[in-house]
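ugh ok fine here u go
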Amino acid sequence: MSRNDMSGNVLPQTRAYTLALIALTLSLVSGAAAQTPSCVPPSDQQLIIYRAGSLSGTFKPLIEIFTCQTGIQVKDVASGSVDAGRQITAGGHASDLYAPADYEDIDVFMKPAGYADFNIVFAQGRMVLAYSASSVAEKKLPSIADPNSQPFNPPASIPNATAKWYENLMMPGVKVGGGNPFLDPGAYRTFLMFQLTEAYYKVPNLYNDLLEHLVIPGADPSGGPALGKRFDYQFMYEHGAQAMASKNPDFRYVNVPDEINMSDPAKNDYYREHALIVLPGLDTPSSARSVSVTGTRVAWGITLMKNAPNRENAIKFLQLLLSPTGTAMLKEKGPAPISPALVSPADFRKLPESLRPLVKTMEK
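structure:
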């Protein structure tokens, strides 16, 4: 074939291929641009949130949406809720919003000491009893899942615990993982659940017998899972357990009765009557030296700090959290939304007017 033939045949095909490739690239870029939300330019405005670590699944993506929509930069601090409360009071850390894993912390710590005026209860859940299937089998512990109950297939079905599940927790060598109750509701709820277990089963001294198996192992330097290695069982939030089970096929959990798992708002009076823990106060001149926290249903609250440095920005975030967008994020990531969110009648009168249409009044 001559050079002229090559020039006349090959190059036009190459040119056509190049033009097609350019067109495809432009199409992909255009499609990606159409799928990418258009964010406003970042601003120098700020919002500061101190919240429970158990809210991370929802708050992290919600904060990204908030910053995209407003340009406001968010300082997001996750920690144990009681610890967070002390950081922004006695510790003097500036904060706009405080969102504890136990809504009661706002009512018994923040409001009496003059740091907050209202409490919005926006999410709910339950405590479940988690364990490692391989560890339980290795230690030859009896099954804690009722064989006549539904199979373990979260989130569709979760087995109930056996009739005397608490006996597993008291077997020789068995450890129940916990945390520091002075810092975190997830930790002090274990103490409350032990009390509720004794009240429900009416076994003398059961609370103290369970406490003897409670360990507070602290952080694991290896970063690996502690359940099944450093302890055998652990009470935890259902949405957190569900997330762990989706990643780890060895992870299991069971339901305990509603009188113990603190999930039923209709049983709030029962929880309060049978479970109580006394915690140190906020260590500020306006706060009590000690605070009694009673058992209540598992629910998350949020409040606007009275001395919030970015009040209007905080209200904008609360509007997003209580909107259909926030509700959808809670449904996807957990904990489960309360929609509309709840406030007491007294608190409703103290809410910013823009938030009132987003909540419902109810005595808690």
